[in-house]
Write a structure and sequence with these properties.
By secondary structure, the protein is an alpha/beta fold. About 20% of the residues lie in helices and about 30% in strands. This is Fosfomycin resistance glutathione transferase.
Length: about 140
């Protein structure tokens, strides 16, 4: 049986700009770095950056993205830092809780979000998505 999410690996075109982006701008802890990769972390997240010559910097057309949790008090500070660094935004927030959607140097779609699954479910119970069904806790 699965016990949790283990790690996330992102293919990158250039290691140094990605390490700077994730460690300095987003403030993940840099754990290790080598010629073609790096390990960074947040509580509960192990992120691997891996240089891949097949990676293109063009963002995918779909909605697939990676969301990071952030406290309400830290949200405006990080959004201001991202905007000051001229990070590209890719979507406006349309859901419960504050969110900022942005791209990393390789076009990976990212989000910082204030809230969690229980707060999202509560908002959805008040205004459900079309065809939404809720299931009892097991």
């Amino acid at each position: 049986m699965l016990s949790g999410f283990n790690h996330l690996t992102l293919a990158v075109t250039e290691l140094d700009p990605s390490v700077v982006f994730y460690s300095e701008l987003l403030q993940l802890r840099l754990e290790a770095q080598w010629d073609t990769g790096a390990y960074l972390s947040l509580p509960g997240l192990w992120l691997c950056l891996s240089v891949d010559p097949l990676r293109k910097k063009t963002p995918a057309a779909d909605y697939t993205h990676y969301a990071f949790s952030i406290g309400a008090q830290d949200f405006p500070v990080l959004v201001a830092r991202l905007k000051a660094a001229q990070v590209v935004s890719w979507r406006d927030n349309r859901s419960e809780g504050d969110s900022f959607y942005f791209l990393d140097p390789d076009g990976h779609k990212l989000e910082i979000h204030v809230g969690d699954l229980p707060s999202r479910l509560q908002a959805c119970r008040q205004a459900p998505y079309a065809g939404m069904e809720f299931f009892p806790a097991s």
